[in-house]
């Protein structure tokens, strides 16, 4: 068995700082979202994802893949959102086995109402705190890690 490659002090500080930053940033941005719009983080994730695709629809299994959620989690979230009129679910026209989720007009309106406050929170709590150079570095780091974790995509 090989010896673990323990983190040195600088690596440990970077790792722990990153973890704490992500936790606090997500907490604040989604708290601001809920306070400003009444939408939850999962609501916003589903609505914004649907809004970015042609026809504003996704197959449930593809939506789960895109959001990095289980199919069960997507199904439960979609059910809650259907009850509020934000999305509609229907059988897949192509094969009859799956189902698709479509953004409704009410869902589009909710997203459009929430988006300005959401982007302001992202700006206030991250973007405006960084220089242009720091943002470029963050983008390169993010791309590098995402590429490593999603080979072939």
Features:
153 residues, mainly alpha, Arc Repressor Mutant, subunit A, three-stranded antiparallel beta sheet, 6 helices, WH_DNA-bd_sf, MarR/SlyA-like, WH-like_DNA-bd_sf
Summarize this structure briefly.
With 153 residues, the chain is mainly α. 65% of the residues lie in helices and 8% in strands.
Please give a structural write-up.
This is MarR family winged helix-turn-helix transcriptional regulator. InterPro entries: HTH_MarR-typ, MarR/SlyA-like, WH-like_DNA-bd_sf, WH_DNA-bd_sf. Residues 11-147 form the HTH marR-type domain. By secondary structure, this protein is mainly alpha-helical. It has a domain at 40-115: Winged helix-like DNA-binding domain superfamily/Winged helix DNA-binding domain (Arc Repressor Mutant, subunit A, Orthogonal Bundle). The chain contains six helices and three strands. It has helices at residues 9-37, 41-51, 60-67, 71-83, 105-125, 132-149, and strands at 57-59, 87-91, 99-103. α1 (9-37) packs across α5, α2 crosses α5 (105-125) and α3 packs across α4 (71-83). The radius of gyration is 19 Å and the shape is globular.
Strand content: 5-15%
- CATH C-level name of one domain: Mainly Alpha
**Main beta sheet strand tally, sense and closure:** 3 strands, antiparallel
The CATH topology name of one domain reads Arc Repressor Mutant, subunit A
Architecture of one domain, CATH level 2?
Orthogonal Bundle
**Count of beta strands:** 3
* Fourth CATH level, the homologous superfamily of one domain: Winged helix-like DNA-binding domain superfamily/Winged helix DNA-binding domain
Overall shape: it is globular
In N-to-C order, the SSE pattern is HHEHHEEHH
The residue ranges in which pLDDT falls below 50 over 5 or more consecutive positions are none
Return Rg in Å: 19 Å
Backbone structural class:
mainly alpha
Q: Please tally the helical runs, counting DSSP H or I stretches of 4 or more residues.
A: 6
Organism: Tenggerimyces flavus
Protein name: MarR family winged helix-turn-helix transcriptional regulator
Pfam family, one: MarR_2
